């Protein structure tokens, strides 16, 4: 991954671009066995995220209908689009606390509407989006400003909407929902993109926390260490520990700063990459994301080909959860030092939907129990009727 280059070229480039540091090449092949951590694997709004995304997509389809209800035919063929791996009708019936089924006016087709509790949370969700509109715009702006040319294709941003906490219809009318710093542009590959022109200088979460601790003055290049949160039982080999200590002493390059002068094979470039991932996850609602969903960012964010290896090389900063048959990258700091990462305003709403999901489990369990009791009562009644008719009761 990190290969040695001619020392003269390195020194020349460093002197031209930044006289404050020399880019080092001390690559250590970090291989660590994956260590399960039940704490991160049990965070509900992360483990339920994939499920919840599909539920909210269906909820929006119903809530946007003028009548507040839809026939199953309106969504039955949109399962793949909403990441639903089963029949949509069956999926809706799994959540009776959110979706209420009734017989339609024609042809006895099943229709669905939202339950009163779901309607209440939906209204609260819409109010939250209005109240935190400026925060959502700022997060989107930061996300775009971390790209190479301060521009990202709309389809890439739409793919990240769930993580950024942006409503489904937010980017359908960007001229209405976004401020004047955003512009729709045509990109080189023919895609429609969204660019940001902003003179404001943003600071990363790591820089803000360093200022609070009094270890950072706000200059462009300083030696900032990453906060580390080792999992219980996770021990690093001596060679890797020594490498990590040296890695922490390298200059910190903010993801909002120009990084074109960095040699992609240097340790400083890796530290910039780790800082980029840290900042990106800090902007997301759950401070986590499916690792495979981040691969589409490589080209436009200027990330190395195997940037996903950074999650494995830095287990004290990131945890890889293998729940739900996928690999989810989690920012440890957000859950170990909750005061250091700003909580996303939409997280509270998602937790309310998750509580409704748990209510559905209870409802379905009670239904099964009731059906079982009814079946038993009917069996007893049939048994008594046979006896009353004078028929001989078979012996066991």
UniProtKB/TrEMBL annotation:
| Pfam hit, one | PORR
* Domain PORR: from-to ranges: 35-360
Transmembrane regions:
none
Signal peptide annotation: none
Protein name as annotated: Protein WHAT'S THIS FACTOR 9, mitochondrial
> Can you name the source organism?
Cucumis melo (Muskmelon)
